[in-house]
Amino acid sequence: MLRTDGRNDDVLRDIRITRGYQQWPAGSVLIEFGNTRVLCAASVTEGVPRWRSGSGLGWVTAEYAMLPSATHTRGDRESVKGRVGGRTHEISRLIGRSLRACIDLAALGENTIVIDCDVIQADGGTRTAAITGAYVALADAVTWLGAAGRLADPQPLSCAVSAVSVGVVDGRVRLDLPYEEDSRAEVDMNVVATDAGTLIEIQGTGEGATFARSTLDRMLDVALAGCAELNRLQAEALAAPYPGVLPEPKGKRR
Amino acid sequence: MLRTDGRNDDVLRDIRITRGYQQWPAGSVLIEFGNTRVLCAASVTEGVPRWRSGSGLGWVTAEYAMLPSATHTRGDRESVKGRVGGRTHEISRLIGRSLRACIDLAALGENTIVIDCDVIQADGGTRTAAITGAYVALADAVTWLGAAGRLADPQPLSCAVSAVSVGVVDGRVRLDLPYEEDSRAEVDMNVVATDAGTLIEIQGTGEGATFARSTLDRMLDVALAGCAELNRLQAEALAAPYPGVLPEPKGKRR
Amino acid sequence: MLRTDGRNDDVLRDIRITRGYQQWPAGSVLIEFGNTRVLCAASVTEGVPRWRSGSGLGWVTAEYAMLPSATHTRGDRESVKGRVGGRTHEISRLIGRSLRACIDLAALGENTIVIDCDVIQADGGTRTAAITGAYVALADAVTWLGAAGRLADPQPLSCAVSAVSVGVVDGRVRLDLPYEEDSRAEVDMNVVATDAGTLIEIQGTGEGATFARSTLDRMLDVALAGCAELNRLQAEALAAPYPGVLPEPKGKRR
Amino acid sequence: MLRTDGRNDDVLRDIRITRGYQQWPAGSVLIEFGNTRVLCAASVTEGVPRWRSGSGLGWVTAEYAMLPSATHTRGDRESVKGRVGGRTHEISRLIGRSLRACIDLAALGENTIVIDCDVIQADGGTRTAAITGAYVALADAVTWLGAAGRLADPQPLSCAVSAVSVGVVDGRVRLDLPYEEDSRAEVDMNVVATDAGTLIEIQGTGEGATFARSTLDRMLDVALAGCAELNRLQAEALAAPYPGVLPEPKGKRR
Amino acid sequence: MLRTDGRNDDVLRDIRITRGYQQWPAGSVLIEFGNTRVLCAASVTEGVPRWRSGSGLGWVTAEYAMLPSATHTRGDRESVKGRVGGRTHEISRLIGRSLRACIDLAALGENTIVIDCDVIQADGGTRTAAITGAYVALADAVTWLGAAGRLADPQPLSCAVSAVSVGVVDGRVRLDLPYEEDSRAEVDMNVVATDAGTLIEIQGTGEGATFARSTLDRMLDVALAGCAELNRLQAEALAAPYPGVLPEPKGKRR
Amino acid sequence: MLRTDGRNDDVLRDIRITRGYQQWPAGSVLIEFGNTRVLCAASVTEGVPRWRSGSGLGWVTAEYAMLPSATHTRGDRESVKGRVGGRTHEISRLIGRSLRACIDLAALGENTIVIDCDVIQADGGTRTAAITGAYVALADAVTWLGAAGRLADPQPLSCAVSAVSVGVVDGRVRLDLPYEEDSRAEVDMNVVATDAGTLIEIQGTGEGATFARSTLDRMLDVALAGCAELNRLQAEALAAPYPGVLPEPKGKRR
Fold it and tell me: What class of enzyme is it (chains A, B, C, D, E, F) (predicted)?
């Protein structure tokens, strides 16, 4: 039994990774999981937040947001509502945690990298696309810092990070759910993993349903295979040279 | 190798459940996991939020908060800061989702139950204590609604819900972490489960570390055993009669 | 003519004072005026707010709040509404002013004591219970600072502070009104006094009614007698030793 | 011993009351207590707030604010800070309560009167000037409503309301303190009274000092005499005809 | 003397208009003025804001925002700051006013069109690019409404709207300033015009400089010629068919 | 054809300028354009905002606001709504920009002047009255700073600034529109000019209408003549001596 979009249960949507999408940030990646499109921009600033100042450690954080026009029905703008919603907060924190798991903040030196993940078009799996794209933007920002001679240590990235959703739909475990499946899934799980096959984060939820331990095990199998495939596509994208002009050593902050 | 507080790795802290702690809410439970103390109050109102009105379905939601004096160092009050933080939002949503997994909202009828989980004293595991206590408060509120003749169906609760934390500390998988262990855990996971042994939610995170699939499997084993013990203690507490005065049928809203 | 709860007009409700209610704050007191229960926690931090820095003077301030579940009908959470209401502000300021009247801020040294008064259960007179309990928590915090060798002067407290409500109900002047009386009082007054019998603050209001000078005089008589009785109970509670572990001199901040 | 401005201890500053200061509101009064100048505008709208709708009762409320340029050192604008401060809230509530004590809300009919008290220049006693001026603006708004045929009953005002400050300065009880005295007063009290000599509200505070019952008694004597003089001046001002064009019966809302 | 990018003083940058950029909104246009890229999305909803309800008139409004990563130095997110800044407000209002000048709101019927203008990359002239692109998105949304049979009148658009910046740089009047010129311009003006050559809005400012009437006249000449060229490019873009699937008459709201 | 108030099309309303309206600010001017009354207060503080600190340059900024009672129908207070509206922001920024065009910020030295423009009564043209009055208040504040010996250079003001509205009403170009004309104008323009006849800012808008280039030219002619007349009245007002007590050299900050 094929899915609406013709995929097998354990197959990812078409993944496209475009580096150098914007001109100003040190890393700027448009990532697409099917119709889901997220712009991941890694901006570098010298120094760290005050609470971390003088520690010798760098800082990596993320902010996730959705354009009002990204969803089927227009969403209200959080700046107009005057506050960031719970879901937005939750996803921003997840992205930040996930990326910090793969970087040695001492090696980064006292630099801050902010990764903005702005959803241009939403069709399910925006947070997992964001994490997967954010890693590529982060890698470009690290390359940029290295060229500028601003890293405390040449290679702060210890592994690659990718993420994918998996769920139970129509009683079947399925990978990388589009909105049409996500909205009626009985169980929904997001898995963040490294290219060494280890886990960074899992979040599995059954709203209005519960799930057996054996289902969880099957979902993990499928998700980890999906993450491995995403890691392969990230590596492929990063094999091309840096998509902009690298700074001279001791270059100015960007 | 025993833990600081003398427990074995797979043993819960002392759990105490006090029903009827406050006089006004339909359910009011003080739950203690060792030194962690959370006051869980279930308040009932007639009707449902506007977006749900007319559906015939009830609504259950939760709000988690921490007293400024609950933590080792005094925390700022979120009302004074003028906004609810990301962590607070995240936990409130988790509690609400977890409780909705065990209740049939059609059977509840067009009533709203808000469960306030206010942490009186924090020593690790406040969110899992909150979920475990909130279930007991919810059960009392359902009893209250039943006595008032306001349920659409006599038994809306389909299972009991409990939650516990589990983590990797000093390289060992340990159950129900106090703050001293939690703050230096390599991996931290919260598991919400039913008394049927099925899962409602799992959230596992390795900040600054990653973890193997086999570690995840071991953590799940330990957590599910912990949840089963918590379910036993909940049932024991609920075996006593309702700790207040039940309303007459068609009683006024409380 | 006795009151609903059997008291004479000029008699206080049952007062209970429990010191050491929480483990972290330097002073933590649960005070009960009948069914009204307020948790008063005094947290100590080194240093003072910026506008006071370098003055050699300490600072004492208070924050009052109500748990949503404390009232007969659940109240909305001020953190969720995104701002502190006028009544909350007013009471917080009153508590802070009242406590500052009994402490020599130069003797306190450049330390800040924040007193959180969180209402666990409300049945009238929450602000007066809060002031009365906050004084006891403040006294414990001062003892704690003294043991730590952090006071500029050994005894900064110049007097004890207590507070009580008094009102005109059914045409009679009555002391310490529970909610049932408070809600229909013609005149409502709060009196804050010292154990020397002097006044710190009086606030008397007739919403929808006015009152004669002679009624005011009678209310003051009754309230001052009530405050004297509360001072006696505070002294009794403080006669027992400090309910926790005192720091060593030059101990760390708590 | 005369005061800095040459007055005796129990004498008011020069009081000036200008009706019809603005053209749009139904009542608009500029009141001056010496250099303190407050613009009190009473605006009328048909209907009442939702929570009062259908009760047949009207509503009277007040909003107090200070121009940034009114004080010796420029104050920050509360609209720019994004919230109303505690002191502003407190005074707004006091003015509203005081005015509601003199009006029969059933006689007012389902109309709302909002009294804006904007301080143009501050030199002590702004809240008492505001109350005294607000009463005059309210009286004009009631006249306006009467002419429009919109009162449920011809005379909703049951008494006149005035207010004055009194304090202990240099050990002496003094009436109507300017900023120079107010800022160093040992005790500070505001008294709101009716032209029948009864009390509506008293608020007495000793920040950094306490005061004896006998001092309180003396302050009340002086304040009540001051209020009586203010009532005389209000009556004198209101003896002149309405300072604008009165509406025809059944006139449109203003 | 050529400009940094080789243009003559009165020549536009390369303009690119891409319709159908997103799948959900009724109109979605990516417009590029050189390196400035703005995504303009027109979302349609049935009904109008409450204050306009029952008037038979439709409503068109706009919201402008900038991605944090759009600028040379990363900007703070307005949702995180908790309020929309003055510049953002000002530009949103300008876009809305400009579009309302070209549409007959009675012909639109009781529909609301919200045009979100999100700046993907900023290099000067974002507000003028936004207006020019928003018109094209609006035209597509009107086509969509017409196909759905939801217009009160078949052709509500009375003219086309475009906008361009003009300024004085290095003493010369120049058209369509990139950031490098804009940031050092002595005078800066934005002109919104119709394809009939009439004006909708002009805003000219000399911060830190003033300008002669004759300079203003020359700037208007250049800007109006630029607007005419933009109108030509809009018409060219709109000559192609609607870039998505049009609804059936009486189609559901989109 | 005369206008409702009997003026010819190109004639200003009665203009009154009262210096020294308040006692505390260094400059305080009540300006009246017919029934429009705006209080413009220039407050001086030593130092500049942090982002400008150490530059040797001063800063001039403005805040515009409207009293709730200033308009025909009472407006909500922005402090109560918790945020400054778009229109308020826009006008505040316009006033600040306009004044900065006439002052040499290096000559001002590291002082900040904040100009509060509070509308006491609104009848059209409040922003142009505010700019015209603000200039006079600014001139007084500069005189005050000069007397105190706090200017870096004796004469920082390079020109005078005035502003006026002009519009098309009933098909005729008219100067200085009162509310009655403003509310039905087809085109509305504000012009800010110097006493040298040069322009600082023009903002012209046709909401619901467009206008020809020739109409714009005619509006500019009329507005510039109006500004010249306003400059004459400003000079006349400033010919009288400073309306308060000037500080001694090296006087304290005011």
Answer: transferase
